[in-house]
Amino acid sequence: MKMTVLAATLAVALLSTAFASAAATSSTQTAAAAAPTNPPAVWDLTPLYPTTAAWDAERLAIVAEFPKLKARQGTLGKDPQSLAAALQEMFDLRRRLWRMEIYASLQADANTLDDVAQSHAQQAFSVDAQMDETTSFINPEISAIGAEKINAWLTQEPALGQFSYFIRNVLRLTSHTLDASSEALLAAAQRPLEGPHDVFNLLTNADMPFPKITVRGKTWTLDQETYTLLRTDKDPKVRQQVFKVFWTLFKAYERTLGASYAAHIRGEIFKANARHYSSVLDMKLASENTPDAVYKTLIAETNAGLPTLHRYFKLRTRLLGLKQAGYPDVYVPLTSKSPSYTLAQAEATTLKAVAPLGQDYVNTLATSFGKSWMHAQPQRGKRSGAYMNGAAYDVHPFVLMTFNGDYESMSTVAHEWGHAMHSVLANAAQPFPTADYSLFVAEIPSTTNEMLLADYVAANAKTRAEKVFALNQELELLRATFFRQAMFAEFEYKAHEALEQDKALSGSDFSKIYLDLLKRYQGDAQGAMHIDDLYGSEWEFVPHFYNDFYVYQYATSISAAAYFAEGIEKGDLALRDRYFTMLKSGGSADPYEIVKRAGVDLASPEPYRAVIRRMNHAMDEIEALTAQ
């Protein structure tokens, strides 16, 4: 199922205080839009299906439609009406399928310990695989019709209009499209190829024996959510204890998770070879016609900007009063520990922060907050991280996160609801075939919201310490979403490259690749931060590595988001219009072109250099404040 998901690695944000006042001014004009006093913390899935029995009946009904669609094989080239009818039937069925699948996946993610829910999710994913098999004849038949005849048909048959982008994409990828029997075979292989990800998900969320840890007399189970909470503790000894215990656990599973990840990559290499691509990266970028210059420029510019990251770590070391910072010190705030927020307060603050996006946006978001679209309640067995799933076109988006009451949780609310509002806008403006937007665009509105939120907090800081805290949130967003995600992207590139060269990689080999990158990015040799060899196991923790060459889009998106947030806060209404046009475009064009039309060329160095300048400016501000 194609889902628009949000980030597992989230930070908080802030732009320059030079234009933070604009956010404060605009927010006072929208104070009437407030979040509910007690917003729901658990989602309501009944708008999807009233009961599990109704869901199961729809699952079976969808499967019963497959023979009818399959019967259209061999008819698409007959005339434009036949092509339009087949595509309409396919998209109508996929629309129902995604709704069915999201219901099962949301139940499974809310409780990975629920065997029945896990079984339902497997059943749903099996139907998705059957759908891929059933429709595997469509692309080869469109390719066989040829561009000349297709172009004529598009002018003759209005019913083909909503499918034109899909059709042109198929024609563009003709050289990588196989015959119908081969396409069916690849589609049938997809479900077993997802096995490594299933193993990773269940092992790291449900089956790992997470250890106990005692902090100031309180005993915690050090699972993923608790690790995220305790790694910000103000006591360096607590942070060191948390890191040592947590990563020692993952180190013990290095062989198992190494075998799982290597098997996943080999599955992707198999698909790339079958489709005659030179690499997995080439296959992933080609699917949406993204220039490889985007990936290469990002990596080059991030490496060129590493001295700025190292400057940040040295600044943190000084302000934290440490002789030598280590990796356990990377998440602790520079000033006091994060303020506490209720979920209602987080939503109300987010509404004030996004005021520069206009009253319509604020009102729609406020109304959505008051509904049961989000599962934010902490609970054992819940999938870690956060995401938004907007695949239920006829219903509404759903958000999963765990609200811990700190600033990062509030920033996650702003982030994931940026995704949700993207889906609301795209679904309202586009027909189903072009509503589902690319991951390349998805992270822009989410990180834009994070920046607006931190700008608002900075503008309303009452003390110097609060201002420094807010500025640190900007730096943390840039570190975590620009530098860290680019490091992940470089790790993926090196791991795939080694296996594509038929080298054997074990878990310890992956850890060595990751450790080398971690030391270079964190400035171990430059004295910016000491990296213990144990932390080479961190790659085992990252779920996005099972969605190949996805994470680089966090870094490209935050570069675009910085551009939009700065201009919109300054009152550039034309830019804001282009921003909303981008969101409403859904998947109606190549995602790189959609962003470029809005004013940002992510294949050029300038967006990334602007991020580096912004980071240096924030550090200049902190140094000036702390020198007083």
TrEMBL record:
One Pfam family linked to the record: Peptidase_M3_N
SUPFAM superfamilies in UniProt: Metalloproteases ('zincins'), catalytic domain
Domain Peptidase M3A/M3B catalytic: 230-609
Textual note on the cofactor: Binds 1 zinc ion.
Domain Oligopeptidase F N-terminal: from-to ranges: 141-210
Signal peptide region: 1-22
Domain of life where this protein originates: Bacteria
Keywords for this protein: Hydrolase, Metal-binding, Metalloprotease, Protease, Signal, Zinc
EC number: 3.4.24.-
Cofactor(s) needed by this chain: Zn(2+)
CDD domains: M3B_PepF
InterPro entries xref list: OligopepF_N_dom, OligoPept_F_C, Pept_M3A_M3B, Pept_M3A_M3B_dom, Peptidase_M3B
UniProt similarity note: Belongs to the peptidase M3B family.
NCBIfam families the UniProt entry points to: pepF
Function: Has oligopeptidase activity and degrades a variety of small bioactive peptides.
Name listed for the protein in its UniProt record: Oligopeptidase F
Organism field: Silvimonas amylolytica
Phylogenetic lineage: Bacteria, Pseudomonadati, Pseudomonadota, Betaproteobacteria, Neisseriales
